[in-house]
Amino acid sequence: MSEDSAQFPPVDPVKTGIKGCCPRCGNGQLFDGVLGLKPRCAACGLDYSFADAGDGPAVFVILIVGFIIIGSVLWLQVNYAPPIWVHILLFAPLTIILSLLALRWAKGILIAMQYRHNAREGRLSD
Ligand SMILES: [Zn+2]
Fold first, then answer.
1. pTM recorded for the entire structure
2. DSSP secondary structure string, 50-115?
3. What residues flank ion ligand 1 with Cβ within 5 A?
């Protein structure tokens, strides 16, 4: 990574993650589709095979989106007591949209942080 830092100045992992850009150059696209990754950066050629966020993004999304949605459901029920179909019509699409958006952001941020801190699977030394 030291030869990378001379050629590519460090980019902010949060900004590049939210924009879905390459963690090394900040220009190329990271995602192929909604959540899939491209094989490499089109701008700088960084191989994305190192990128493995695992279950990390899902945990953050479950906790954050779950808190927002359940809080909103409880607030609506306590203050207006609408019928159950209002909850379903309102919160089912909102949960799906918020989860997909937050999952893409969290995955981009975690991959950018993984690249920046050179994090990888633990290996036994020879
Ligand atoms: Zn790049």
1. 0.82
2. G---TTHHHHHHHHHHHHHHHHHHHHHHHHH---HHHHHHHHHHHHHHHHHHHHHHHHHHHHHHHH
3. 22, 24-25, 28, 41, 43-44, 46
Measured in Å, residue 43 CA sits from the centre of ligand 1 at 5
Centre of ligand 1 to C-alpha 110, Å, is 16
Strand partners, 52: none
52-104 pLDDT, tens digit per residue, is 888 889 999 999 999 999 999 999 999 999 999 999 999 999 999 999 999 99
